[in-house]
Specification:
The chain has 255 residues and is an alpha/beta fold. The chain has one domain: Metal-dependent hydrolases (TIM Barrel, Alpha-Beta Barrel), CATH 3.20.20. The chain is 38% helix and 17% strand. It contains nine helices and eight strands. It has an eight-stranded parallel beta sheet. Strand 7, helix 7 and strand 8 form a beta-alpha-beta unit. The structure holds nickel (II) ion. The site of nickel (II) ion has 5 residues, from loops.
Length: 255
Amino acid sequence: MVIIMLIDTHCHLEEALYEDIHEVINRMPGLMITAGTNRETNQEVLVRVKENDNVYGVIGIHPEFVDSYQEEDLKWIEEHLQDEKIVGIGEIGLDYHYDDTKKEEQKRLFERQIVLAQEYHKTVVVHSRDAILDTYEIMKKYPNVKFILHCYSSTIEMAERFLELNVLFGVGGVITFKNSAKLKEVVEKLDLEYILLETDSPYLSPEPYRGKVNEPANTAIIASKIAEIKGITKEEVIVKTGENAIRQFDLNIAL
Ligand code: NI
């Protein structure tokens, strides 16, 4: 039997970001993995996964909060890593786009959380913006850890270097944008077994909804676009990327 499982591997299901979060979740005919970024949003991840059978979560401190997080936030994350339906640490990583004055602090925070993931056998969901080489150098030190590069935005050559590690690539709404030649090349050349679907809701809405509030149900639009680029069916994309997600996150679902 083939399980057709549409999985949005990366979204932010915070109540304040949507008009009606319950409707948004109900409209998604598959699974969602909601990502925390700081103390408050991590706590909300726990609420969301308890409320909804089809929502799983990852918790972590995003590089944006490198100045404001507290030691006890990392303790809290460690305490909740074994919770039911918490399937990883994220989103964590490096972001030099808005502020590159705290590189060393960001690297330290990123690496401390990878060490936690390694200890508890959890998958790491990585945010990397304008920092791909530093991201690679750190990840390379942890060949036993399963990683996901969320919203992958670098080149095919860089993607091929990452393949030596245990890494899958999250592809979202950007693939539908006209100016996404670099990502289209990545999707075209990378085997489907390395690709995951994601929306990053409520951000990065795909065409024709660009600029609007994004939601997990739009994962189907991403699947269609990938199918078009690779010349295969949408069902094939959904089945294979669903299996990839189940495997990379060790979701408790029979394949
Ligand atoms: Ni995100």
